[in-house]
Amino acid sequence: MRKLFFALLSLCLFSFYTCDDGDIITVEFDFDDTFSACGTNGLVFYKTKNDPSESLSIKIASITLADILEVGDDNMYENDFQLSATNTFNYRTYSNSTLPTSGLFCSDVPLSDIKIIKDIASTSGKVHIKTVLTEDDNDGIPAALEDINKNGDLTDDDTDGDGIPNYLDEDDDGDNVLTKNEKPDPNNDGDLSDALDTDGDSIPNYLDKDDDGDSILTRDEENQSADKNPANDISLNGIADYLNPEVATKVEATAYREHTIYQTYVVTLIVSNFDLQIISLDVFDFGALENSALSTSRKKTPAFN
């Protein structure tokens, strides 16, 4: 939670303050570093707090959430919007002891039990919106450690040659066993030197196309059910065939399993050159958006090779 302190000058302009001209009053805004958003025809970005009940909000009439999540080839969206009579930056205080968690903004019918004491608006200034998309395979290996050739470029490391770089590939070696299930980091300490290596060939299972060293590719050891999952094929001694060198029966795979690539959007707002009298800053960091729509995924099934 960010505690912001602002100096207020000549606040006797507002009837709810008692002061002399030139007095300086310090007000603490104990708002979170995050904010919410709502709206379909335009967006309202807002944050609220209780004790006392206050809100900060920014209305941008010309955009939707889908617009600001439409990132370019660089996985980024950036745009500036001018504050105006329709795009406003507001600070409000309320008589209510607590504010509702939803419905305060963007409601078709205003909440009848919410009483606004003061509404101070800025109609000049600039709002900078920035969205950054991060994609990952959530396979238990930090993306930085999937730079196999150590050249600083994650996009050219593709162990199985399926067109999906390792940092986005749930199955780095293309054996139809998910990387996270091949124990790349057994004790979760970020050190991959102890990654499981069943056949002891110095190639960890998550990068090894033949995990048990029996000359049959792991993906071709589906002796019980051809469901693109060698882990559930067990013929002898309770050990999955792909990890059991005593089982070397080949059933050729014909396809890769579907991959999930996980996406996280981070949306931040910066307001500058505004005239909201209660905030004596030239630039105000509004924080980062909290919204379940910012965590999503996409699917991809690579061409079999």
Automatic annotation (TrEMBL):
Residues 146-214 are annotated as: Disordered. Residues 191-200 have a biased composition (Acidic residues). Residues 1-19 form the signal peptide. Keywords: Signal. It comes from the Bacteria. This is Uncharacterized protein. It comes from Mariniflexile soesokkakense.
